[in-house]
Design brief:
The protein is an alpha/beta fold. The chain is 41% helix and 27% strand. The chain contains 5 helices and 4 strands. The protein has helices at residues 29-40, 58-73, 84-92, 105-113, 118-122, and strands spanning 5-12, 15-24, 46-56, 78-82. The N and C termini lie far apart (33 Å).
């Protein structure tokens, strides 16, 4: 845990659910980046649960986008579950059509349990 940011990871329904709670800014972004890098080697689908974030700046968004691109490059599945604040940042940046986004962890797990959609396979 980095002061102001708590990161946990659990396995659910054959997926890794990585949860970040608190504030994600330039100072704390490296902790999330390290946690995400660990999961790129597992070949397990990843749900990034950011519903507990009270603040996220562009450095956090950059890490989310880079992780999404890396999972796509590795032909692995990645879904973001944003808080309202995080979703606003995603929308302001115009990235809502670039990221796989679900409103809840349950929805993300259901999405990842289904076969890849045509848009997921064509963007790879």
């Amino acid at each position: 845990m980095v002061a102001g940011l708590e990161i946990t990871s659990v396995e659910r329904a054959g997926c890794c659910v990585l949860t970040a709670v608190g504030e994600l800014d330039m100072v704390r972004a490296r902790a999330l980046e390290v946690a995400l890098i660990r999961h790129t080697t597992s070949e397990m689908p990843l749900v990034l649960d950011l519903t507990g974030l009270r603040f996220m700046d562009s450095s956090g968004l950059y890490i989310v986008l880079r992780t999404s691109n890396e999972f796509r490059r590795l032909n692995q599945r990645f879904v973001l579950v944003p808080s309202r604040i995080v979703m606003r940042l995603v929308e302001v940046a115009g990235m809502q059509d670039v990221l796989a986004i679900c409103p809840s962890v349950q929805d993300a797990l259901a999405h990842l349990g289904s076969p890849m959609t045509e848009s997921e396979t064509s963007s790879r």
